[in-house]
Amino acid sequence: MSETKNKLSDPSGRGWVAGYKVIFPAMQHPYTQEEIDAVVDVMKNAEGQTQGPRLEKFEKDFAAFTGAKHAFGVCNCTDALKLAGILCRVGPGDEVIVPAYTYCATAIPFGDLGATIVWADMDPVTWTIDPADVERKITPRTKVIVPVHLLGIPCDMKRIMQIAKKHGVKVVEDCAQALDCRIDGQHVGTFGDFGCFSFHAAKTMTTLGEGGMLTVRDDEVAPLVPGIRHNGLRAFQGARERYWVPAMSNVDIDLEGQWPQNFCIGEAQCALGSLQLKSVVPNNEILIAQDRKIRERLKDVPEISFPGVVPGGRYVVHQYVMHFDGSAFGKTRNDLLDVLTKEQGIRAIVQYYPLYRYPLFQKLVGGEADCPVTEAWWDGSFSFPWWCGIDDATIDTMCDALKASVAALKG
Fold first, then answer.
1. Cα distance between residue 269 and residue 113, in whole Å
2. Which of 84, 125, 271, 308 has the CB geometry, 3.0–4.6 Å to 54, for a possible disulfide?
3. Do 199 and 248 reside in the same domain of the chain?
4. Distance CA 134, CA 152 (A)
């Protein structure tokens, strides 16, 4: 089948592609008119386009939504992770434990700070980081553990926090795909020392395609964030005879030996973010309902399996990853996708290479990884097209196509 893409096609597999019945849309859901009006209002009326009252409101709204003690808006989740790494004082000689199966942005900020990345294996049930493997890989050089609530599946944070406390290491939660994901009612990102969130266009809520939030637990660490986030800027201390002497703002250091950064998010994004927060739970309920329908329609296909969830966990279904096991009849995931995509017209994709297989990490970290569960599992993984609001007819089309594809391989 020809795959003639338009010039804007996303290498992740999203966007228009000719010749398929079902594709991945570029965004989860469209903006409402209220949200569009809020952005336009900033364009017309805001006295400043950044670091203003809408940022302050968005941070307060987000902290209230998640139950976080402190929340700081940033330009994306990658920078939230880097800011967390800076605040953990990660640097050369330190080790940071990262799941081998995640999006590349989980590991890049810590590698950029000079840390050695140590790959953790996945739990065979939840497909998230395995706490037992984390503990096995802790050394005296371990500085940070980075559990990732990938696909909207909560990690076993209670066990991870026990391990972190026992060994005296920091925990930075990557919650990029897990807004509204909870364990026993507690929002992810509030268990560890830091939580990092994404508002990319593919997420349940987005702030004009990019955006992020850092949550901070420690009351003494939180005051350091604004200066590091915004070039070390702050007001001059004390009274001045002339308001312009020596200049309008000062630039100073917040963390000894650490250069400040620029991770700021715009006022229009923040105005939009406060409104988008109102639709997160309803949209996640739609996604959860879609998941239940697909699981029900595929319950009689034993070759297809789904992720499990830790006790008390709320799985918010960010991406729709499944696993195919055709070993009983000598078929692989690639055999399945050949039929599903070329003959059935479903634009299924494969999410995330194990990070240690990517050229970037092989060159900068090394290609060695002790992750047998990830190795055995990944080659059978694949994803259905996924967005908020898939109608029943499309769900039937995808499930019928998958059933037919499996049956064809067995036959």
1. 28
2. 271
3. yes
4. 20
The answer on 267 and 207 residing in a single domain is yes
Asked whether the bond before 307 is cis by omega within 30 degrees of 0, the reply is no
Residue 144 backbone class (left: φ over 0; alpha: ψ -120 to 50; beta: rest): beta
Each residue's pLDDT tens digit, 289-344: 999 999 999 999 999 999 999 999 999 999 999 999 999 999 999 999 999 999 99
| Number of domains forming the structure of the chain | 2
> What 3-state DSSP class applies to 244?
coil
Query: Rounded to whole angstroms, how far apart are CA atoms 203 and 177?
Result: 7
Query: In this model, does residue 94 exceed pLDDT 60?
Result: yes
Phi/psi for 14 (5° steps) reads -85, 160
d(CA 106, CA 196): 10
Pairwise CA distance, residues 59 & 327, whole Å:
49
Query: Do residues 265 and 81 touch, judged by C-beta distance below 8 A?
Result: no
The reply to whether 261 and 282 lie within a common domain is: no
Same domain, yes or no: 205 and 300: no
* 126 domain-assigned: yes
Q: Kindly state whether residues 211 and 326 are assigned to the same domain.
A: no
Q: How far apart are CA 241 and CA 245, in angstroms?
A: 8
- Residue 20 located in a structural domain: no
Tokens linked to 136: 């096995």
**Structural domain span for residue 97:** 33-276
Residue 18 lies in a domain: no
The residue type at 63: A
User: 162 with 239, same domain?
Assistant: yes
6 belongs to a structural domain:
no
SS3 328: helix
Give the model's confidence band at 191: pLDDT under 50 very low, under 70 low, under 90 confident, else very high. very high
Q: What is the pLDDT of residues 100-115, one digit of tens each?
A: 999 999 999 999 999 9
pLDDT band at 9; cut points 50, 70, 90: low
What CA–CA distance (Å, rounded) separates 170 from 192?
7
Is 264 in contact with 74 (CB distance < 8 Å)? yes
